[in-house]
Amino acid sequence: MLRFIAKRFVEAIPVLFIVATITFFLMKAAPGGPFDTEKATTPEIKAQLEAQYGLNKPVFQQYLDYMGQLLHGDLGPSFKYAGWSVAELLAGAFPVSLELGCYALAFALMLGLIAGIIASLRPNSLNDYIPMGLATLGICLPAFVTGPLLILVFAITLGWYNTSGWDFPSDRVLPSITLGLYYTAYIARLTRAGMLEILSQDFIRTARAKGATEWRVVWKHSLRGGLLSVVSFLGPAISGLVTGSLVVETIFQIPGLGRFFVMAGFNRDYTMVMGTVLFYAVLIIVLNLLVDIIQVWLNPKLRFD
Amino acid sequence: MPLLELSNLRTSFHTRHGIVRAVNDVSFTLEKGETLGIVGESGSGKSVTCYSLMGLIPQPPGRIEGGRVVFDGVDLLCCKPEQLRRIRGKRIAMIFQDPMTSLNPYIRIEDQLIEPLLIHERIEYTEAVKRGIAALEEVGLPDAAKRIRSYPHEFSGGMRQRVMIAMALITKPDLLIADEPTTAVDVTVQAQILELIKRAQRQLGMAVMLVSHDLGVVSGFCDRVQVMYAGRIVESAKTDSLFHQPQHPYNRALQNSIPALQPKGTALYTIPGMPPDLSRPLPGCAFAPRCEFAADKCSTGEIVLKEVAPDHRSACLRVQQAEIKV
Description:
The complex is a heterodimer of chains A (305) and B (326). With 305 residues, chain A is mainly α. Chain A has helices at residues 2-29, 43-52, 59-71, 86-121, 126-140, 143-157, 173-199, 202-209, 214-226, 228-242, 246-252, 258-267, 270-298. Chain A has a domain at 87-258 and 281-304: MetI-like (MetI-like fold, Orthogonal Bundle), CATH 1.10.3720.10. Chain A is flat and about 85 Å long. Chain B has 326 residues and is of the alpha/beta class. Helix content of chain B is 32%, strand content 24%. Chain B has helices spanning 46-54, 81-87, 99-102, 109-113, 115-120, 125-138, 144-147, 157-169, 187-204, 215-221, 239-244, 249-256, 317-320, and strands at residues 4-15, 18-30, 35-39, 62-71, 74-75, 92-95, 175-179, 207-212, 224-229, 232-238, 306-309, 312-314. Chain B has an eight-stranded mixed β-sheet, with helices on both faces. In chain B, helix 6 packs across helix 8 and helix 8 (157-169) runs parallel beside helix 9. At the A-B interface, helix 8 and helix 9 of A face helix 2 and helix 5 of B.
């Protein structure tokens, strides 16, 4: 097992290298620069700024410099937020996004799994159509629709929660639901499909022939196999959830990571773009590894390969 | 009182192509300790009969349209689900056709094997494991104490079928339903599997219902045999009598099709035509279109199973009226 994990980490290095390289040159290929939108710049000041950040050097030299920095674990200073390093900015915003993401994930898993299992037990009945209809709605509705709707109903009309902010525990509820709804719907659909497949297998008939209760059939005999596809989905899902969403953060005024992903690009904040992309890449690699480990634990057939 | 009594069981499947009458008016009884064979070709309703009485028909699309299945005084078709659940796996156990897919690949053999004990008996886990190991040794699995910790994919097909048998027998059932237990295993393993079942039957005194399409397997194993065709029982008799004095043209044709029973060099006999489409209503005898003895009344008359010789029942109209000898 340890060897498997070590091997995956070694494999991750070239992946990260390629991600960094491609992102770097794509970013440089985009027109404009970080200081174009500064209002009071004269050409002299701009030239001096660029010299200070090394932007006057040839692109390839800049690339080598950046990669050198990166090898020392330094993501560099932000071009937009003077006096802040990219690492500091990410470290400040990530805990907020992580917290929100975890709540959203918990919400999505709980509701999605239950809805999917219920739907799979009586396929093509109301028990199936109602949750799956809602799930389709959940996949279709974007956060900028559900967010304001939730605010309208639960914050403004009912007055249960604040309309926005990130100060009190109750402020976590609406954003978590808004962020988690899409994943809830997706998990519900995956769960239903996976469970339906398992429930039609011969070994489920064997379990019933042994006199197992319906509860036992689902819980002991079906869930492991039925949830394999949900687990595969969780890797990308968690990386998406914990890195924040610009839309949800904007609607609810949350100081999370999501805005950096989008704004860094608009601002041509080069180091920030690199920082967010690499952060996301590392997260995906680690989570996918985790997912693979869970898969092996769930499915004994994989253990010997 | 017989151990099991089926009367007029009818099971159908409501599919997109119409209603498939998989089991049509099947009645029979099974005494304690008796061995009953059910033979017939694929789709003749053998397995569906077993699944119906075990309550294992997926509904929908399946539906039990009528009839009674009385096991030891309890009607399995209309008793409470809880009551049925307590009987199946405890007093009626079942072995399935394909050992490769009938064991759960995600769960250790141990947990699957002792599951019937944990479900039906008040028993400590460690005690159950002990009985599980004993059950595996009983079916001839070497190194049972260690191998019980394995997963199904680490076992061969024959070994998995042994595990299935051990699992079925672990609660000492009164009735074992074996649905083509030897179809999916190697020929060399077939005899061993049957021997295992036979031995367990002698030890436990249980009744066995053996479903098979292999006449050879059935003839050597069963006290009584019934032949099914198109969802109906067409002939039922003591094994000897069924094989030596067939009373239904279908049974005769089946036996003519066994290569080993014919002189070498003669052309292999096959029954002309195909089994009927069960989603269409079948007036008269379902076998009539393929039967060399068929007369006009065969395709219109009402078909019932009647005694035509001592303890030998046939559903052939012409045999019943002594018009032909098959």
